Amino acid sequence: xxxxxxxxxxxxxxxxxxxxxxxxxxxxxxxxxxxxxxxxxxxxxxxxxxxxxxxxxxxxxxxxxxxxxxxxxxxxxxxxxxxxxxxxxxxxxxxxxxxxxxxxxxxxxxxxxxxxxxxxxxxxxxxxxxxxxxxxxxxxxxxxxxxxxxxxxxxxxxxxxxxxxxxxxxxxxxxxxxxxxxxxxxxxxxxxxxxxxxxxxxxxxxxxxxxxxxxxxxxxxxxxxxxxxxxxxxxxxxxxxxxxxxxxxxxxxxxxxxxxxxxxxxxxxxxxxxxxxxxxxxxxxxxxxxxxxxxxxxxxxxxxxxxxxxxxxxxxxxxxxxxxxxxxxxxxxxxxxxxxxxxxxxxxxxxxxxxxxxxxxxxxxxxxxxxxxxxxxxxxxxxxxxxxxxxxxxxxxxxxxxxxxxxxxxxxxxxxxxxxx
Length: 421
Known about the structure:
Layout: H1 2-37, E1 39-44, H2 52-62, E2 65-70, H3 73-85, E3 93-97, H4 101-107, H5 117-122, E4 130-131, E5 134-135, E6 138-141, E7 145-150, H6 151-156, H7 166-178, H8 194-208, H9 220-235, H10 251-254, E8 260-264, H11 267-270, E9 283-286, E10 303-307, H12 314-324, H13 327-337, H14 344-352, H15 362-366, H16 381-396, H17 402-419
Family: Belongs to the bacterial solute-binding protein 1 family.
InterPro entries: Bact_solute-bd_prot1, SBP
Protein name: ABC transporter, solute-binding protein
């Protein structure tokens, strides 16, 4: 009987021990699961990385730890596609370039993100990251086109006002050249690269209010109009022939080698930075020239952040994206890493606080941002862009007239559109 009692006691103790171990394992597992839910991985180029202090503040207020994966912009797209092929997230939150939106949406690499109307109105570039009325990434780094003219050069040539139309740009350029103020007064990309495509997009859209038809085919009238302007600048020797092969068209403004340019919004700061510019306090940012008057719109080429549909921490990821693109954080990102805000309200505050100087029409243009894509950036954008910039480069090398270039561009772009319906 005693042996039986001892045996029962041993079994009871063993059972309790096993139960305790199982309970501990269960608690540990739950703890780890909870801990994982309070962490997000963030894949971003070095230019968009928040400071350690900012990340600690976010962790303190949200309980969410952010693991930053600083990654070269050139590598991000491949890492996302490789991970997605195995139905895994390259990161919970990652960089999304404006040109990737259609491709990522079609491939199922982006989670839909809900945004308030107030936030969308404050971030005009959000339209670029929307497809069928749904937002798939939230812009954090602004880049929209601004016109710049070197007032000192214009004054030297006796030109008293900034150009408001492209006819005036060309007329002024001829005067600047004839008076030997600057050899190549206008600088614009003409090489067989993406910059020539984006130049074509903003020029056609700002002059005509459209680049593509509602069915995504290229609008021939608008295309020809833009090509004629680019051709005139080139054939009349108003733009440096080196731009046909070089990607350094934009720096010519800050180097004092050009008097007029339409380029990235980042040049508002660059032209007044003594470390990067030879024309400090000489350049004025103005509204883009139009056809008969100043343009009423500009075009964005921004960067955004999106959430992987394969993320296991989607709620934490959503909270991080909301924080990262908030007014306060956008202000701090500009102060600490010079990321230009996508929120108009934050740009205005930076200007009022004297953080950005000699801004000219920067704020005005931030309220005029529109997307040239009637149905969102298409998933075949890369193929289409290649056809556009190759055609522009052929015209720049005088192998095509503007009319021939327009015919070729329409034929090739519309073929890409048809193949991807």
